[in-house]
Amino acid sequence: MHASKGDRLVVHGRTVGQKDHVVEIVEVLGPKGNPPYRVRTENGHETIMSPGPDSVVDHRKAGEQY
């Protein structure tokens, strides 16, 4: 997994009906874009994450659409 500051991390829901959880990567702490990442949630809370196999990096920046 490779990410940059400003990318979004999408953690898919694990059960039927559970929504995906999206956070913004505010700092890459691992070498060459690898985890762990400091992330910020929509409510402003920050934490450090090492994402699992149920996560993907969305390289679109906040507000950007395809």
Q: Could you give the order of the helices and strands?
A: EEEEE
Q: Which strands sit side by side, in order, in the main sheet?
A: 4-3-2-1-5
Number of domains: 1
| Low-confidence residue ranges | none
Helix content: under 10%
Strand segment tally = 5
Radius of gyration: 12 Å
**Main sheet attributes: strand count, strand direction, barrel closure:** 5 strands, antiparallel
Q: How would you classify the helix and strand content by structural class?
A: mainly beta
Provide the β-strand percentage band: 35-45%
Terminal CA distance reads 21 Å
Query: What characteristic shape results from the CA principal axes?
Result: globular
Supply the number of helical segments. Answer: 0
Mean pLDDT rating: 89
